[in-house]
Specification:
The protein has three domains: 284 residues, HUPs (Rossmann fold, 3-Layer(aba) Sandwich); 160 residues, Orthogonal Bundle (Isoleucyl-tRNA Synthetase, Domain 1); 105 residues, OB fold (Dihydrolipoamide Acetyltransferase, E2P) (Beta Barrel), CATH 2.40.50. The protein is 41% helix and 19% strand. The N and C termini lie far apart (65 Å). Helix 14 packs antiparallel against helix 16, helix 16 packs antiparallel against helix 17 and helix 16 crosses helix 18. The chain contains 20 helices and 26 strands. The protein is of the alpha/beta class.
């Protein structure tokens, strides 16, 4: 059983990249579990009560319910457009939720864990949280969001949070429920400082769930966090023991790091009080910045998920979010990095591998690939790729999808490098067609195994890939390909490019416009960082399967011999370039292009439909610096 939940998102504003990140992680987990044959339930939804919603609605001339309906609909429509495979879309304004919260409140009250008193303290409407004086900054702003707090004094019901301090610490120790594990120490330190009883009702506003009528004090509204956290119980009809109630306790609660305290301290205490089992894991991810800066409307640098998807496509967006940052760390959205990952990893390493396999299968085996001889020739490659795939599955268990994807692309590298190493076109030329076809079949099987797991991250693209290889992504084939490590035969059909190369950034922002003029000029110090050297072409050849690329062997002087790839095949004949001197950007970070390493960049100038390599007029020493 796998019950996966996101936070239920507060309807005070439209969906942002943090919401998308959490939801895509949850969706990836759900898809992976279903693929593995695990019975899975995936919940997301919206949190719609509280003073902040009441105020937001009033400022926009809506009733709280009208406003909640509007924003909740925006979330749901976005998740539907993003093909999020949720099973339950939950709302705290649903009647079954209201009844469940009141029933749980009464259960905790009758147990003696809720009592009446008076509260005076600093309250942040934005965070729906009380703070002590020591938790506030000098200007009395809330420590979490930077907004002003107000002193609130009112009658309140309290929850005996202090009663559960030792039990919560014991839960951390015995179950190790917090992911990533390094977050546990922060929680332990917070709990050990001493948990104070928690004010769980308010009387100064009306938009919320009233306490149970049995307590006969209906002027009190239940604290929005106690209300919201019971959504995971109410939405599976736990009290009525209906069909979905068997999924309790939740397996994975996904949250942002800013609400970890509520989900990993308050929530388990509420559950203990209500005599309910605790979740297996609570996993907290970091925040997102843009180009190293905190996002804000005033800066004009807020990332809107729909705009990114409209510009670049859904699967590249999902891939970038999961690949870019280790789970638990803060992430930075850089459009440049996004484009580089799309072009280098999705287009070159993944999409081009499919193109190379389909091209060679058509050329050498009438589009049919048999796996009979693969183990005879390539047992080492099979084992290496299996190890990477096993590693990926290990990382998925702790939500480390950045590592998961890294390992899968290492498996893809085995296939790409095997083509480079064994050169199937030369095998065919030398009469070894059997080994050539075994090599192509090896690569197709590695690609199929990787695609099976990548389908949880990029479902649309991997469905197209599997259709091209003529196999189905389902539990039956998962067992064969991944669990039993079987090799498949394939009948290849043509597939359009899985991913599109991105030539220029497609997103516009106020920030980029403001910096446009500033970015056109550089300082002399910036130019001095570039090392442009003269090199002689020792060898040059076309790359099989690519119309654009030439592979150069260059002499940069002083025993510095390098391999550099350049996309100039349409403008130059490879053999004509041997012996020519060229200008090379020599301190460029190494890159992998079409499965080959490229260590530098050959400089050229393009004018209309012509391209000319930059080279010295007179013969000079190799390694001479330009500048």
């Amino acid at each position: 059983m796998r019950y996966i939940t996101t936070p239920i998102y507060y309807v005070n504003d439209a969906p942002h990249i943090g919401h998308a990140y959490t939801t895509i992680i949850a969706d990836t987990l759900a898809r992976l579990y279903r693929l593995q044959g695990k019975k899975t339930l995936f919940l997301t939804g919206t949190d719609e009560h509280g003073q902040k919603i009441e105020q937001a609605a009033s400022s926009r001339n809506f009733t709280p319910k009208e406003y909640a309906d509007k924003i909740s609909k925006e979330f749901k429509e976005l998740w539907d457009e993003f093909n999020i495979s949720y099973d339950i879309y939950a709302r705290t304004t649903d009647e079954r939720h209201i009844k469940t919260v009141q029933a749980m409140f009464l259960r905790m009250f009758e147990k003696g864990d809720i009592y009446k008193g008076e509260y005076e303290g600093y309250y942040c409407v934005s965070c729906e949280t009380f703070f002590t004086k020591t938790q506030l900054k000098e200007n009395e702003c809330c420590a979490d969001c930077g907004k002003k707090t107000s002193i609130v004094k009112e009658e309140s019901y309290f929850f005996r949070l202090s009663k559960y301090q030792d039990k919560i610490l014991k839960w951390y120790e015995q179950q190790e429920p917090i992911l990533p594990k390094n977050k546990t120490n922060e929680l332990i330190n917070f709990v050990k400082e001493g948990l104070k009883d928690l004010s769980i009702t308010r009387t100064s506003f009306d938009w919320g769930i009233k306490i149970p009528k049995e307590i006969k004090d209906e002027k009190h509204i239940i604290y929005v966090w106690l209300d919201a956290l019971f959504i995971y119980v109410s939405s599976i009809d736990y009290l009525d023991k209906k069909e979905n109630s068997v999924f309790w306790p939740a397996y994975m609660h996904l949250v942002g790091k800013d609400i970890l305290k509520f989900h990993a301290i308050f929530w388990p205490a509420f559950l203990m009080s209500a005599s309910l089992e605790l979740p297996r894991y609570v996993a907290a991810h970091g925040w997102w910045t843009r180009d190293g800066e905190k996002m804000s409307k005033s800066k004009g640098n807020v990332i809107k998920p729909k705009e990114v998807v409209d510009a670049y496509g859904l699967d590249p967006f999902r891939y970038f979010l999961l690949r870019e940052v280790p789970f638990g760390n803060d992430g930075d959205f850089s459009e440049t990095v996004f484009i580089n990952r799309n072009n280098a990893e999705l287009c070159n390493e993944l999409g081009n591998l499919l193109n190379r396999i389909s091209g060679m299968a058509a050329k050498y085996s009438q589009n049919v690939l048999k796996s009979d001889n693969v183990k005879d020739f390539f047992s080492k490659e099979i084992l290496e790729s299996k190890n990477f795939i096993d590693n990926a599955l290990h990382f998925s268990k702790t939500v480390q999808f950045s590592k998961f994807l890294e390992e899968l692309f290492k498996a893809l590298a085995i296939a790409n490098l095997s083509i480079t190493k064994y050169e199937p076109w030369n095998l065919v030329k030398n009469g070894n067609l059997k080994k050539a076809n075994a090599l192509i079949s090896l690569c197709a099987n590695i690609l199929a195994k990787v695609a099976m797991l990548l389908s949880a991250v990029m479902p649309d693209s991997m469905t197209r890939l599997s259709n091209s290889l003529n196999f189905k992504i389902n539990n039956e084939n998962y067992k064969k390909l991944i669990e039993k490590d079987e090799l498949f035969d394939f009948e290849i059909s043509v597939c359009d490019n899985l991913f599109k190369k991105i030539e220029t950034p497609l997103l516009n922002s106020q920030k980029s416009e403001e910096k446009k003029d500033e970015d056109t000029k550089i300082k002399i110090d910036d130019f001095s960082k570039l090392k442009i050297k003269i090199a002689t072409v020792l060898d040059c050849e076309n790359i099989e399967g690519s119309e654009k690329l030439l592979k150069f062997k260059l002499d940069l002087g002083g025993n510095d011999i390098r391999q550099v790839l350049s996309g100039i095949a349409k403008f130059y004949n490879a053999k004509d370039l041997i012996g020519k001197q060229v200008c090379v950007l020599s301190n460029l970070k190494k890159a992998k292009i079409f499965g080959y390493e490229s260590d530098g960049m050959i400089l050229s100038v393009k004018s209309e439909d012509k391209l000319v390599l930059l080279s010295p007029n007179d013969l000079v020493l190799n390694g001479s610096l330009v500048g």
